[in-house]
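Researcher: Here's a chain I'd like modeled. Treat it as a single chain, no partners, no ligands.
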Amino acid sequence: MKNFIIRRVLLGIFIVFFGALIIYSIIRSLPTSYVEQIARQRASSPLSTKTYQEWLDQLNEVYRLNIGIIPGYFGWLGNAIRGDFGESWNFGVPVTQKFSEVVWYSVIINIVTFIVQMVISIPLGILAARKQYSKTDYAITVFALAGISLPTFFLATILKYVFSIKLGWFDLYGLTGRFYSSMTPWQQIWDIAYHMVLPIITLMMLSIGGLMRYTRTNMLEVLHSDYIRTARAKGLSEKVVINKHAFRNTLIPLVSYMSYLIPSMFGGVLITETLYQIPGIGYISYQAMIRGDIPFAMFYTTFLIILTQVSLLIADIMYAMVDPRVRAN
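Model: Modeled as a single isolated chain. Structure tokens:
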């Protein structure tokens, strides 16, 4: 098991290295130079003592844009390994500092969404498989397909129209209410949780359908296996057959599917946070990207690559825990 984990870690490092290289090369190859825009803004400031060309030369040197892509990437990589991702052009603070300030909002939203998704999707998927071709199965299937098919912006708009405009239960935008500063600490926590309800519902409804359908498909395959028929022939109750024999083997392919949920949530949360203007890592990254904040864009995309590799490594380890046959020597 130890050798297997070491090999997977080395493979993950290899993928992160070349993934970040591809992203860096794409950003460096963009036809529009955001460095020129930043230099123009700084040169036009009344407090500036440098010309446009001086600012341009300084920025190109700082971000190694005056050398080739490969040397520039290794220069960026050397700083990144030391934890220095540069200063955000848009926010005026170190990238890692801004990241640490906003990432916890996204983490809370994703953790709550993930837990609720597991609690709802897996039991409904199993129920649909047990009652195949029944009204229950059809109802769950329609619900799952609706969640898969709805675009994020459309679902968020519908939820805001119903619960914010018509019913007035939630605010349209933002993470806090207008009286947040005058609240006690516990009231502030509840106020933030209250404003996260609609974003969490949006993410949950968009992701619940895929896992539900995946659970149903794998459960049906397991229920038609020979060992399940043998267990039933021995007189075991349906509850024991489902919970002890079928569900355990259904978990094996589910582990692979769930390994992609966390990185996909952090990628998909960008749209949801932007629509609700929740100042998490997704919304902040969107603001940075549309303003040409290259240091923050590089950090965010590299963060998603690393998160994906960590999730896959955890999935491989969980495989060995769920199925004794899948043991790495």
